[in-house]
């Protein structure tokens, strides 16, 4: 399971590969944090709960990315670890516990602010492994 950043002139395009949806969405969350700040400098001092739902995996991913960005940018909470559980009944539900600490600009190297996720270039494929691609508007 991993994520990587693809070349783009003004935004961040991220590719994720994982064995299952829980791992894929965990990697997507880590990639969002890594886009914003130096994730290696974040300590596990506090935990928070995030829940999102979506009628499709695309909508679930979009809402998940928005929720992680909200924690980072609006709440000022730097995340270093995710525990994600996705279930599907009539729609998809994602419940996560995230671990981290309040952002301290003296400690956490701030890279760039993410404005929002987008549906543009979003892709999710489920075969032997999960493949996701998404764009973050910077």
The pLDDT mean sits at 93
- The stretches of 5 or more residues where confidence is low (pLDDT under 50) are none
CATH topology (fold) name: Archease, Possible Chaperone, Chain: A, domain 1
- Taking all Cα atoms into account, the compactness measure Rg is 14 Å
Written overview of the protein:
This protein has 138 residues and is of the alpha+beta class. The chain has one domain: 3-Layer(bab) Sandwich (Archease, Possible Chaperone, Chain: A, domain 1). It is 25% helix and 46% strand. The protein is built from 2 helices and 7 strands. It has helices spanning 21-36, 57-74, and strands at 2-6, 12-18, 46-54, 77-88, 92-102, 116-126, 130-137. The strands form 2 sheets. A 4-stranded antiparallel beta sheet has the order 1-2-7-6. Helix 1 packs parallel to helix 2. It is globular, with a radius of gyration of 14 Å. The model has no long low-confidence stretch (mean pLDDT 93).
